[in-house]
Amino acid sequence: MKKLTSRLAACALLAAAAPFATAGAAFASHGADDGTGDDSGGGRGGADVRNHGSCSGTTSWKIKAKPDDGRIEVEAEIDSNASGQQWDWVLKHNGSTSAHGTATTHGASGSFSVERRTVNAAGADALRFRATHAGETCVARVRL
């Protein structure tokens, strides 16, 4: 039942995000990230933390986390510049799997993003998003 609920939630998220994916993801190409991994920004709930980098191939990744109403909102994006690729992904929080699924890149940018809210544990929170496709691996990390 838990897997079914997770799959239904992932499908609903992808369906809701589809209209925005074709317009190009502002976070992927116009984010206010300077690459230090500690940018802070506005938004409800507190300052966000961002990081970005390259995968094992030509793909790039971005990750953002911020406190939100007693939880942590995490957004990770994979940008491969190739539409139609199916990626398997896992989000870990302090070493434990928080969410996992499969996503397909779409739009001219050939990207997908995953947004999840996770518990806000006491102390520092280490978040890791890992995505794989056809032998390429992306590992995005951020600490909040």
From TrEMBL:
Keywords: Signal. Residues 1-23 form the signal peptide. Residues 33-67 are annotated as: Disordered. This is Secreted protein. It comes from Nocardioides panacisoli.
